[in-house]
Amino acid sequence: MAVYITNTLTRSLEPIIPRADQGNTLSLYTCGPTVYSYAHIGNFRAYVFEDLLQRHLQVRGFTIRRVMNLTDVDDKTIRGAIAAGLSLAEYTRPFKEAFFADAETLRLLKADAYPEATDDAQIARMIAMISTLMERGHAYQAEDGSVYFRIASFPNYGKLARVDLEGQRPGQRVASDEYEKEAVADFALWKAWVPEEGAVGWESPWGKGRPGWHIECSAMATGLLGETIDIHCGGVDNIFPHHEAEIAQCECAGHGEAPFVRYWMHCAHLMVEGSKMAKSQGNFFTLRDLLAQGWTGREIRYALLSVHYRASLNFTMEGLGAARTALARLDAWYERLLEAASAADVSDTPDAATEGFFTALDEDLNISGALAVLFETVRESNRALDQGVLTEPQAKGLVDWYQRVNSVLGLEPDQADDVLPAEILQLLDDRTAARNAKEWTKSDELRDELAARGWLVKDTKDGQKACRNTA
Ligand code: AMP
Ligand code: ZN
């Protein structure tokens, strides 16, 4: 069964097929955070989408080699460091640490490598790549001392974003890392040092300076994953100029005809009241803002995950509330199943319809279809439990299925939920003692006491089990 995705390059649905010499392995490069501030949850929408992609591909038997870069030198990080009166490293360090902490809170799988643009080995690779581009006539040093990519030397420039180069005046240049499509022009590969950038700079054949944002990703991606990468992801705002520039640099500095990337995937934006959530708009929430309001990482993950990656997601507190309700429903159902399956030795394969969860995701990560199968299964099995007709092996089959589902969704109950507060543990111990002494009245009183504190107790063959009453 193939996994189909929408390739931004061809604008069509394509099956993901590994390269002939790569076995089941797919390389995945995902543009990481620019660490000039805390990542906002719009950024995390992109990372959660990439996490869903990786997890689903793994469930389908692929081995993923994944790299996510950290952009720790660019226009924005330098501006921030100067404003704060700190070195670039001092300024970016807390944002790097926060990014990893947030990624863990959102249950994102770890990449195999997180290269940093300021790493000496990466800078050396960027310089080597720019040298190759110079040698081949794809780049030139301008009178401002900076080195620019000559887009007129690459006829395929514009193939990803489908920009029209007609009317383009040769030699127009743009030094900024981010610019509009209308400004399509030669972009900076190496930016000559200027006094305002203080201590930030590296020696190069073109004098002291620092890399442009686009060459950073090109060098880190091909340096760690090879000249051709299977899947490259980001948000739609990365298509132009960033990914267009990455293609130009890599395909002009490479050895052969091989494309830089085989499948491009981009997620739509997280929106707030009709505008893209962005730091520059001031309409953003960081993960810590939402945690401080009492939302959990798991609830935020659900809210970000539950809308198809190519549809824009309107961020609202109601959406988070709906995530909370949906998760409570799943948790209560799963508890019931665990209880019903507790004595089962064998597991019955669930109804064939449950495979629909995975086949929906095979179709361009159709999460709405997948969640529809999940909730339909919850509804039906709850009904069977109510009627007392769900057998133990059937319940166990569903428990196993939900664990497979969660290897993709990553929505299993929080560990913290499983940790019992000390007072509850004490009441449970007292109840065990009462039962061992056959003091049934006392045992029942203790059960009522636990219920009054919001905990349900069930007696199973392995002893009593307590769970929070979510009803
Ligand atoms: P940045 O830190 O700005 O380089 O962005 C990191 C990632 O977040 C990139 O893949 C962006 O495309 C993505 N991104 C930024 N803003 C949003 C948004 N509002 N919705 C979805 N993805 C976004
Ligand atoms: Zn990038």
Summarize the model shown.
This protein is an alpha/beta fold. It is 44% helix and 15% strand.
Account of the protein in words:
This protein is α/β, with parallel strands linked by helices and 471 residues long. It has three domains: 269 residues, HUPs (Rossmann fold, 3-Layer(aba) Sandwich), CATH 3.40.50; 99 residues, Anticodon-binding domain of a subclass of class I aminoacyl-tRNA synthetases (Four Helix Bundle (Hemerythrin (Met), subunit A)); 49 residues, no CATH class. The strands form five sheets. Strands 5, 6, 7, 8 and 9 form a five-stranded mixed sheet that branches. Helix 8 crosses helix 9. It starts with a strand and ends with a strand. The model has no long low-confidence stretch (mean pLDDT 93). Zinc ion binds next to loops.
Structural class: alpha/beta
Name the hetero compounds present.
Answer: adenosine monophosphate, zinc ion
Distance between the ends: 39 Å
In CATH terms, the superfamily of the largest domain is: HUPs
Unreliably modeled segments: none
Arithmetic mean of pLDDT? 93
| Beta-strand content bin | 15-25%
What is the oligomer described by this structure?
Answer: single chain
